[in-house]
Structures
1.
Amino acid sequence: MTPAPDPAPEPRAAGSPAPAPRAPVVGFDLDMTLVDSSAGITATLRAVLAEVGVTVTAADTWPYAGMPLELILAGLAPGTPAGQLEVLRARYRHLYPSLGVASVRAYPGAAAALAAPAAHGGRSVVVSAKHTPNVHRVLSATGLAGAVAEADVTGDLFAEDKGTRLAQLGATAYVGDHPGDVRAAAVAGAVAVAVTTGSHDAAALLEAGADVVLTSLEDFPGWLATHVEDLRTDPSPATARGEGERAAPLPG
């Protein structure tokens, strides 16, 4: 017996309003996405690990950029008992404001990228693995704090946990440098926008599932215009995800 075809969607009643277009709500990762914080992270890690007899270099710490502190410490000091790792984490958080913040620099285009959603009626949010007080310190030190409401800044989250927070914030896109950020966007039902300013190249980010890869945040406002148009023509969540699309890296 031939199955009956699926029923056609019911037409919108005459005179009923069309769905309102979704305003862009764009989440941004912090470390190695909005800011180059590698020198300060390395300086703080070196100081903390030296206290337990472990020596590390910038080359050692670079692959861990953007990861949660507990994973970084476990990777750089393997075999350290969990209780001692917690002590090291607390020590890092104590030292980072004095050793790590001053050397942080905003990437070219970061300020313009954070400001861009507001020009389209939307807003930017920041969701980071960094300890929340230090996220605020870095945003303030780099002159980026004014573009994001304090309530829209969240730290201490990584990968899928970021995605849960992004969904709560209504994110339509998430910008990050790490495969974990791509997974966060997927959980949130948002477009995964990757940048190659961290330790992962375009091929790795596309393999992780990024919808688009930018070489610099200077390319972001141009990409955002296409995202806004997508939201305007079809405000459904599937459009926000960029479902079924995979884009090659954009030149920059």
2.
Amino acid sequence: MSRHGTPQAGHVARKRFGQHFLTDSAIIGAIVREIDPRPGQALVEIGPGLMALTQPLLERCGALTVIELDRDLAARLRARAGLQVVEADVLTVDFGALADAAAPKPLRVVGNLPYNISSPILFHLLPWAGRVADQHFMLQKEVVDRMVATPGGKDYGRLSVMLQWRYHMESVLDVPPEAFDPPPRVDSAIVRMLPWPQPAAVDPAVLEALVQSAFSQRRKLLRHSLGRWLEARGYTGHFDLQRRAEEVPVAAYTTLAAELGPAGKDSDTPPT
């Protein structure tokens, strides 16, 4: 097996796109079982690459939308029946428009995300969580550990709070480097993300700013970071600042965010 892509496909993995192609058939089968695609569902795959995951998904559901930035791969994908190809950077894709096209069915979003931009992609998808049934992503295991982390540990941080506010998440499958070609230098994992039907009603921008301030000096007590931020906003309520950011549960952050400002509606389009 060439480290630069499968000989059969003849495609060279491009570092600038963060391409690592999944080649282990047993792992692919396990991922598809976790996703459990069904005919008629509105599946969207981010980064289909050489169709390692796309093909078995297509066999089970009959049709899906794929988002591919690499123009050479996008051209190959268009030749396959059952695929609607969106040739674009996923960070520019309007998932609200995809949801409109699929309505009334909610989207099911899957993908082997480029590890170099995985967090921006997760944040890009947040505004449309209300129109998504579930998300299954392959990510660097270290990122998945941070996503599902509970308060009190070193993995718990901004990513944990912002995503757990909107999703129930679990790590469902570990994937070793040798399952890819070329192998990444890190372990990977599959995370399942299920949007909460009734998330805490907060303004996402307020929560984001609050959490960013709290974790800006995570080794210090919150009075040194979040305390000053709250004082600048004129906050006069009670919030225990004699603890570190990693000790505060998600519900406490969202309660504080709700006190600070009017809740933004769960919009289908990102805030401007």
3.
Amino acid sequence: MRPANIVTSVADILAGIAISGILSNGFSIPWLPIVFLAASTACLYGGGIVFNDVFDADLDKIERPERAIPSGAISLQRATTLGSLLLFAGIALAALNSLTSGLLALLVAVFALLYNKFGKHHSFFGPLNMGLCRGFNLLLGLSIVPEMLYSHYYLAIIPVIYIFSITMTSRGEVHGGHAKNLYLAAFLYAIVICAIAYFAFVNDRLLWSLLFLVPFTFMIFRPLLKAIKEPIGKNIGGAVKAGVISLILMDAAWAVTFDALILAFIIAALLPLSIWLSKLFAVT
């Protein structure tokens, strides 16, 4: 279920909630909807990852025999049941907030299954498919105020671009990759950083945003440059792992950009938790 990654999906939800402006409207904090949406994304991400292993069970017997299904830790049937329950729970929990949230959760679940079954085998549509899952996840957080989707839906393009680059990079994780893909990833990373900085500048929050964007940049580029220099599986895997975990800092930058400074620090505080979990459980 990739617990370290699940933490990053919760960070996406909190970033979307910050963008919605609901925390700065002077009213009490809507704890219950926040819990529903955070629990929803945890179930959706966990379920999607379980089905990733379900669909890859035969391939993992050869390439990654240590994973849960090929190692015999869990049967294929039970893994399928677990994944299904998690996805249904994710959709139901989101629907408790609103019908709009439920529909977005359904989209996340559908696109996760599409990626696991078909998308991962395509060099372009696979990364795009995975990027859309994260884009919809940010919108799932934003849907805590459904009306805000009409004015801020376009922000989802940023996590789509970012996850597109990570997914594209991950294709060389097992057998090594090509430096040209890593250079393209570096270019896309730069676009993401500049885009967030632009919105922070427009909202007069650039200095606060840099507090998170600078370490974010360092975390993603340091292993990526190492992989560019030597594009072997180990280095590429390290770049992918750093890219996934660093999502937390990107989400913190989103939060502070939309004047949710306290929430930005709360999101950033999830980083040590995700790093700790990444030492206990696989990230990729």
